[in-house]
Design brief:
Elements: H1 4-16, H2 25-32, H3 36-48, E1 52-55, E2 59-62, H4 64-86, H5 95-102, H6 108-117, E3 153-158, H7 164-172, E4 180-186, E5 193-197, E6 200-204, H8 206-209, E7 213-216
Antiparallel strand pairs: 1-2, 3-4, 3-7, 4-5, 5-6
Helix pairs in contact: 1-2, 1-4, 2-3, 4-5, 4-6
Length: 218
């Protein structure tokens, strides 16, 4: 079972799961933008195929085969995004939807060749880690920019990739992976952060800051 729908389900469960914990039907439905009833039916099929362990009212978790399938899809998606940006000249706000379509039709051989052209990269344009050809990678639990305190510095490591408008705004602020940040001030009552980004002072909203992953400097 390697249809686009199956791959989307397995990828969604993988990305929603925390340390392999079961994922609720409603969470999967919200992630995929479909009705919960449809999710229940698909989970039954995936369970019968040995890709998912599903217990009603408890949730779904991936089997070893399901995890391998999900990680392979994630590898395809992230290498496609990087190839579109670095080789074909796409802007980083346009590649997510393209990769969502292409990840289901490209072969693993083509992805491996793309990875070779790119120099075996370990992160996509948005900072998300890329699994290697063996399916090995590490999702580092970086804190968010919103967790930083005034006077603290950090290197930006990852931004959300699904909202094109947000990515265009982040680009305007120079908030890209590798950017050097210093929190100058944090407004009270869930207010915005005043941040120095590569030497330039900017204001970043709290909700956006919660989605930006950073590596604090010693």
């Amino acid at each position: 079972m390697t249809t686009p729908a199956v791959e989307d389900y397995l990828k969604a469960i993988y990305q929603l799961s925390e340390a392999g914990a079961p994922v609720s039907t409603s969470a999967i439905a919200d992630r995929l933008g479909i009705a919960a009833g449809s999710v229940t039916g698909m989970l039954k099929r995936l369970s019968e195929a040995g890709l998912v362990e599903h217990t009603r009212y408890y949730g779904a978790r991936l089997t070893e085969d399901g995890t391998s399938n999900a990680v392979r899809t994630i590898r395809r998606h992230r290498i496609l995004e990087l190839f579109l940006v670095d080789v074909l000249g796409y802007t980083w706000d346009r590649v997510h939807e393209e990769a969502e379509q292409l990840e289901h039709v490209v072969t693993d051989e083509l992805i491996d060749r793309m990875a070779g052209v790119l120099g075996q990269p370990d992160a996509d344009p948005h900072g998300a880690p890329i699994p290697d050809g063996e399916g090995t990678f590490y999702e580092h639990p970086f804190p968010t920019l919103a967790e930083m305190l005034p006077g603290e510095g950090a290197t930006l490591r990852r931004v959300p990739d699904e909202d094109a408008a947000a990515l265009r705004y982040l680009a305007q602020l120079q908030l890209r992976p590798g950017a050097e940040l210093e929190v100058i001030d944090v407004a009270p009552f869930n207010g915005p952060l005043r941040v120095r980004i590569n030497g330039t002072e900017q204001v970043v909203g709290r909700e956006l800051a919660k989605q930006i992953k950073v590596e604090p400097r010693e």
